[in-house]
Design a protein that fits this description.
The complex is a heterodimer of chains A (219) and B (402). Chain A is mainly alpha-helical and 219 residues long. Chain A is built from 7 helices and no strands. Chain B has 12 helices and 14 strands.
């Protein structure tokens, strides 16, 4: 039963969207929509499991004074404070979730706007620096392929800035690189990946691939 | 009263004939004049009537969820109508309400507001310069919900053909046919990467992407995670699987727990081996990069579906000197992984991983079937390109899913 039930459920959950793709009948559409709603419910329980994991693993880290335990303190404090503001805000305490009746931000909203969002933006902005260092490494002309990559990249980068756009032929070469070799390679990867995904889905639906269920793979 | 008796008297006296003779010629003349004046209009009306749309038929639109009725007609010979007005009634006798208009020369109209199961009668009015010509009323038409989308027949045929190929090759593999799968460097390097971490006494970081279990890349990633966890347990290496998605976290826990059991080392499994961090993309990225900097894992796996965090994670791993194996089917993240990781599983290699690693004939059979399907699609695609270039888009049209 422990082996069969997950496989049966996987089959049913996997086959519903396939049938819904080909059948417009309201019964099928309703079943598919209902399955989506069930996913949200399962999600809620899984999220609870996640919160328990965060609390357990970080509490353990603090108790054992593991490497970096102060970060665990920050994390648990953040979880408690933001979670508390959000939870209590739902019951009208602290003036709600977003703004108080007189238009001022609630503690939850204030923390979100002044702590969470700037931190998030900081992480995202790091991407620019990492992109520069990764490009530097990728564009070192160690062999012919890397050399070609570097030349193409230089044309594309130069062709997409105002100065480059003003230089004769550069925008044309840029567009040619993007529309031909680049698009062809991308489509090749996409077609291969799509077929791979379809094959993988079929294996999962038919229960041939089952390692993700913790059941071992193969028959 | 006086007039009536006078008329009677006149009638008796025989004085009516002069009146009759005076009235009839006048009436005849009037009729003649009126007839002459009206003659062109009557002809036009007659002409308009003969230009009423012919063979009007109303039918359920096939292959939809119901609620649509298609009205078709044939244009009458003669001057074309400036527009067609389609009218509908819930019984054949009327009143008829307009439901829409169709442009000149059209012969089809789709009524999108016909509730399923209710009877509707249609007629088509041709609006002509000389007036309007009304067609005959159709018989009752009902819209109904259909079980199959006709416009996706091509997709169904392709899906069935694809499934047939996969199942066929799986059967061939079951019967013992030898199947060759090319070497995939990224997957062959997994053992070496885990061995390196074991020798260095440092942990292995496995990031299963940031998507949930409804993303097939995540499922493929968990299949690889099962293998990585099994080898890690066998070698006694420390594994760390941080998760961003709660469902993926729950599934990864089961996968790793089972892998440790399969390796005969359930004692090595700890609850924090697979852990949940947060649902926020960049908070998750910050936490994982923080671990990389503090704990310096010897091996990093980034396998699954990634977005903007891919470069931040892999570039950070690069700076810590870890051996890195990545795999994704996200086309826009692949260049970042190629630039920063030692090995990258590109697109379909990610999905082939579980078959490649397990070497189970049944799984290998599905990979082979997929390869043949790809070859056939390439042939179809090439045929489509050639035919479309020469002005015949039949294959391109057939391959388009609506």
């Amino acid at each position: 039963m422990r082996r069969q039930l997950p496989l049966v459920m996987t089959f049913i959950a996997g086959i519903i969207p396939v049938i819904a793709l080909f059948s417009p009948h309201p019964i099928v559409v309703n079943i598919a929509a209902r399955a989506d709603r069930w996913l949200v419910i399962v999600y809620a329980f899984a999220l609870l499991l996640g919160v328990v994991s965060v609390v357990q693993s970080n509490s353990r880290k603090i108790a054992r004074r593991d490497k970096g335990w102060p970060y665990a303190v920050v994390l648990l404090t953040g979880l408690t404070v933001m979670g508390g503001f959000g939870f209590l805000g739902n019951f009208g305490i602290f003036g709600g979730i977003t703004t108080t009746p007189d238009g001022r931000p609630t503690p939850f909203q204030w923390s979100y706007s002044n702590v969470f969002l700037p931190l998030q933006a900081t992480m995202f902005s790091l991407l620019a620096f990492y992109m520069a260092s990764a490009s530097f490494r990728a564009f070192r002309a160690r062999n012919l392929a890397a050399g070609l990559l570097m030349v193409s990249a230089l044309f594309v980068m130069f062709g997409r800035i105002p100065t480059g756009e003003a230089v004769p032929f550069v925008p044309m070469i840029t567009e040619w690189i993007m529309d031909n070799p680049n698009a062809a390679a991308q489509r090749g990867i996409i077609i291969g990946a799509a077929l791979g995904a379809a094959s993988m889905s079929l294996r999962v639906i038919l229960g041939i691939e089952r390692s993700h269920l913790g059941l071992g793979r193969g028959e | 009263m006086q007039d009536r008796s006078k008329r009677r008297r006149l009638a008796r006296s025989g004085s009516t004939p002069p009146l009759r003779t005076a009235f009839f010629p006048a009436a005849l003349a009037l009729a003649a004049v009126a007839g002459a004046a009206c003659a062109p209009a009557s002809a036009a009306a007659q002409g308009a009537r003969t230009q009423a749309p012919l063979e009007v038929v109303a039918k359920d639109r096939p292959g939809d969820a119901g609620g649509r009725i298609v009205v078709t007609w044939r244009e009458a010979p003669g001057a074309p109508a400036s527009t067609y007005r389609i009218e509908r009634s819930s019984d054949g006798t009327g009143p008829f309400e307009p439901v829409g208009e169709a442009p000149p020369r059209s012969t089809r109209f789709e009524d999108a507001g016909a509730p399923a199961g209710d009877p509707f009668f249609y007629r088509v009015v041709a609006v002509l310069p000389a007036g309007e010509a009304v067609s005959e009323t159709t018989s009752a038409a009902f819209s109904r919900a259909n079980w199959f989308r006709n416009d996706r027949t091509n997709a169904l045929i392709l899906v069935l053909a694809f499934m047939g190929l996969i199942v066929g090759f799986i059967e061939a593999a079951r019967r013992g046919t030898k199947l060759f799968i090319r070497r995939i460097s990224g997957l062959s390097a997994i053992d070496e990467a885990i061995g390196r971490a074991t020798e260095m006494g440092r942990k292995i970081l496995y990031v299963p992407g940031i998507q949930s279990m409804d993303e097939i890349q995540t499922i493929a990633s968990l299949a690889i995670l099962g293998y990585v966890a099994k080898v890690s347990a066998t070698y006694g290496a420390d594994l760390d699987v941080p998760n961003r998605d709660p469902l993926t976290y729950a599934a990864a826990r089961e996968t790793v727990k089972h892998a440790y059991m399969e390796a005969g080392r359930p004692d090595l499994y700890r609850e924090e081996t697979v852990n949940y961090i947060t649902y926020d993309q960049f908070a998750y990225t910050a936490a994982v990069t923080g671990r990389m900097v503090r704990e310096k894992p010897a091996t990093n796996f980034f396998i699954g579906s990634f977005y903007a965090e891919s470069l931040i994670l892999s570039e950070m791993g690069q700076t810590t000197g870890a051996i890195q194996i990545a795999g994704t089917a996200e086309v826009f993240q692949l260049p970042f992984f190629v630039a920063t990781c030692d090995y990258t599983l590109i697109g379909e290699e990610l999905y082939a991983a579980s078959a490649y690693l397990s070497r189970e004939p049944v799984l290998l059979g599905s990979i082979k079937g997929q390869d043949i399907a790809k070859a056939l699609l390439l042939v179809l695609g090439a045929a489509g390109v050639v035919l479309t270039t020469f002005g015949n888009p039949i294959v391109a049209n057939w391959l388009t899913m609506r």
